Amino acid sequence: MGRPSVQDQRKKEVLDAFMSCVVRYGVEGATLEHIAAQAGLKRPLIRHHLGNRKAMVLALGEHVVETFSKQTETLRVALDEHPDVRNLIEALFNSDGEMDPRINICYQALVNSIEIYPELRKPLLESMEAFYKVAIDIVLASHPKADKQACEIVAHGIINLFITTDAFVPLKPPKTWGYSSYFAALKLAETLEEKT
Amino acid sequence: MGRPSVQDQRKKEVLDAFMSCVVRYGVEGATLEHIAAQAGLKRPLIRHHLGNRKAMVLALGEHVVETFSKQTETLRVALDEHPDVRNLIEALFNSDGEMDPRINICYQALVNSIEIYPELRKPLLESMEAFYKVAIDIVLASHPKADKQACEIVAHGIINLFITTDAFVPLKPPKTWGYSSYFAALKLAETLEEKT
DNA sequence: AAATTTACTGTCAGTATTGACAGTAAATTT
DNA sequence: AAATTTACTGTCAATACTGACAGTAAATTT
Fold this sequence. Notes:
Two copies of one chain form a homodimer. Chain A is mainly α. Chain A folds into two domains: about 1-50, Orthogonal Bundle (Arc Repressor Mutant, subunit A); about 60-190, Orthogonal Bundle (Tetracycline Repressor, domain 2). Helix content of chain A is about 70%, strand content about 0%. Chain A is built from ten helices and no strands. Chain A has helices at about 5-25, 30-40, 45-50, 55-80, 85-95, 100-110, 120-140, 150-165, 175-180, 180-190. Chain A is elongated and about 65 Å long. Chains A and B meet through helix 1, helix 6, helix 7, helix 8 and helix 10 of A and helix 1, helix 6, helix 7, helix 8 and helix 10 of B.
């Protein structure tokens, strides 16, 4: 009874606003006022729903890790149907709107804040490990004859290139930069093909 | 006449301290007090030498761009002697102590702060363009018969992989991650070899 | 309609950060 | 030694940020 709770919804909204602010101002530059304004709420209200600043940062960490894990799972389905490296690359780089471009930037920002929030280290590390693992599995399944170590290197390379996809967006770089990581990932995948 | 000026030296020391703080706390998290403590100086003194906070951030931008440009030049000499892709990769990934690992992290942090300091955009963009250009030139000179576009893609890929080298360091990742970008870069370079 | 629970706002105190500047100390010239 | 220039320190006011909480409004149950 009583007024129905909207905490779950509000939390998501606030964390979404937090992400946008982290992209613009960094973790420490994202003030509670910034976040509240971005979410269209008053500052005391976001505190009511999420607690103090530290709790918010940790919640953001969970949120990013969770979103990351969902993306990882989305990739795993591409494995089940057609365990092909190109499918992996397409899913990573050309899934229109599926991947939130803010996630990678926030992830990196949180990694760099680990000295302030050491609790973030473990979940961030584990989510990235899972991400690598899925990529490695796909590459291995896709090229069963290829050298195992080569597959791991290619998988790592593809993921690392993916990480940089949106790294330069604030620079408004020439269009040629935009797809460079994508094309490089494709070339990297080529190295596993049979050499005829 | 008068007491000899140590501004040039002090500026360098402060900017070096600023870099260390940006790596730990991000651009906005690096307070003047942090920077001063890191440099072993009093806060009013760093102001005396470098001006207010905004001036310091812009000076840091110049410093990073300058260091970046020096690294770019260091690479160009590797071009003149042996324009080989492997030399490029070795110079990037295995030049013990030559490359300051903080530079990439600071560069990325500054890129993400462009909305606050728009003046940084142009120099940051240009320094990265120069960096790409040198890499492309080396790859082209190294493989004159190869497809031009392929060379550009490989060069971009190598640089983008280089960018990620120290991205995960705060996570204290397993050793296997450490060289993944390096090995991936080598594999990427392989794609330009003659297919026999 | 009363009670209850939650959403939301206004506001204040404590702290952190920055900017500013007066004043002192040190090194150099004349 | 006096003058001059710069390095450096102490300190205070203004501002920004956060934490806390009382109090109001809204939605639901009985």
